[in-house]
């Protein structure tokens, strides 16, 4: 495992010289370390690159980390990871990703993650993305997340793009059975000439299923972000989505959320707001002695926290 | 002018045996009455069916009514009406439309209205649509509205579909110069197997231009509604859109609003809510002695008022 990987692991995962629990480290498309536990089995797929991660029913309080790092240019890493989470399991999954290039060649990671949550399973899924390195090569991370939630399952997804990613297309699809709940928190920062597209599609198929989707983003420099979401309520269910974006400099943002109620018992709500930081907020912090830049940085950090 | 036209005029326009001000009555594609005034000139177009309506600069407190009625099946009426509103004019335009068929043949009206508002002009535009008659023929009204607002112009659009329209596609496009304001209030009721599509696109091109778009709709029976809006802020401007839909029975609704900020000084907000009438609201009215149907009708009427 090279030094850049170690540095990236510290940022995007809970790495502290070692992992606590099951893990698999992916470095430039290769396995740089793996550990299964009594309840969490990690195995390589035999047909395509990637992992089958099986979490036994009833597993409680354990975590599995599957960070992926690209540490130099001219790498286009594609991986298929499937998570089979047994009935009643309650676990944390950490899937950070860092892409680094110091030369003019592009570095890309494309992780296709499928989650199959058993009845009453509870998963906290943390996903941190970062791009680093001084090269002009393009850093891309294109995650695809597909989640299938059985009756009563709960998935809490917390995704963050910390910066340095030149181009990202984030695709998330979820299907919820009766009583299942999906909570999504997305935080996204773009700057320079970065591009970010994010696309959510949630099908509320089971009675009393629910989704709460909150996206917060900041578009600085000349960056562009496009947010798209679609919540489809097919039965008695609740859906709420909210996307708030702050624009600074010449950033541009498009927000296109869609709600579809195919049942009179679906209750769906959406809110969106796009704008720059309010002048009075900046003024207040400047009155306290901060420069304009410091004040803006503080407000942005609070917004994305 | 036939009796059905007189009845429809009473519903969709301010007709009371006669009009107050300039008017043109369109009946099954023909002119059934016209009057210009000193300040408002109505003339037939020479190239396509329709009217050129010229409102002189500075005209104040006048109104122009251009209702269109289709009173039997087997009519597919297409009309192009252009409104040239002079600088500083302050007028009311009433453009109701009724389609009636008593047989199995379809009745359709397709009005393409273009508004050119001069500097600081102020227009209140009222548009009421209804379908009547006992025949099985499909009643369709497909209005297209294109508005170009010069500096400081204000357009208040108030559109209502009162019922009986089997199929409607409503398309509205507007472009706003500096300081121009657009206010849209849309109210839509569908029932049975009716279909309604509504599509707004507003370009905020001038500094301090603004749009406020509020759509309220009720989908009953097996009806389907699709709402789409797009607000594009290209400079310092404000945009707000809100679409609220009540579903009853097996109605279905899709709401797809889009906000695009191409400037850091654009402030754009959207809200949407889809759901059925809250149980406690119904219960309260039933406690006061209303039947469930009466309570629902009262709440729907209040919502669409």
From TrEMBL, chains A, B:
Residues 85-303 form the SUF system FeS cluster assembly SufBD core domain. It comes from the Bacteria. GO terms for biological process: iron-sulfur cluster assembly. InterPro entries: Fe-S_cluster_assembly_SufBD, SUF_FeS_clus_asmbl_SufBD_core, SUF_FeS_clus_asmbl_SufBD_sf. Belongs to the iron-sulfur cluster assembly SufBD family. PANTHER family: FES CLUSTER ASSEMBLY PROTEIN SUF, UPF0051 PROTEIN ABCI8, CHLOROPLASTIC-RELATED. This is ABC transporter permease. It comes from Ruthenibacterium lactatiformans.
């Amino acid at each position: 495992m090279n030094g850049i990987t170690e540095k990236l692991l510290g940022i995007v995962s809970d790495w502290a010289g070692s992992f606590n629990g099951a893990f698999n480290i992916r470095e430039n498309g290769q396995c740089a370390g793996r550990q299964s536990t009594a309840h969490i089995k990690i195995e390589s797929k035999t047909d395509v690159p990637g992992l089958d991660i099986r979490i036994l029913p009833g597993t409680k309080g354990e975590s599995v980390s599957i960070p992926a790092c690209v540490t130099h240019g001219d790498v286009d890493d594609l991986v298929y990871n499937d998570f089979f989470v047994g009935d009643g399991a309650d676990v944390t999954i950490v899937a950070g990703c860092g892409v680094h290039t110091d030369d003019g060649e592009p570095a890309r990671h494309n992780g296709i993650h499928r989650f199959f949550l058993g009845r009453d399973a509870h998963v906290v899924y943390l996903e941190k993305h970062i791009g680093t390195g001084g090269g002009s090569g393009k850093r891309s991370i294109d995650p695809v997340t597909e989640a299938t939630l059985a009756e009563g399952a709960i998935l809490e997804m917390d995704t963050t793009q910390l910066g340095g990613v030149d181009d990202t297309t984030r695709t998330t699809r979820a299907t919820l059975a009766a009583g299942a709940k999906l909570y999504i928190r997305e935080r996204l920062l773009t700057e320079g000439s970065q591009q970010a597209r994010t696309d959510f599609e949630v099908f509320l198929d089971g009675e009393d299923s629910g989704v709460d989707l909150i996206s917060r983003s900041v578009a600085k420099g000349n960056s562009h972000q496009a947010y798209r979401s679609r919540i489809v309520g097919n039965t008695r269910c609740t859906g709420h989505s909210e996307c708030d974006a702050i624009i600074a400099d010449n950033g541009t943002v498009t927000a296109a959320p869609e709600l579809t109620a195919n049942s009179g018992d679906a209750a769906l709500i959406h809110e969106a707001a796009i704008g720059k930081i309010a002048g009075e907020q900046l003024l207040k912090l400047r009155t306290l002695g901060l420069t304009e830049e410091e004040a803006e940085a503080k407000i942005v950090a609070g917004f994305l926290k």
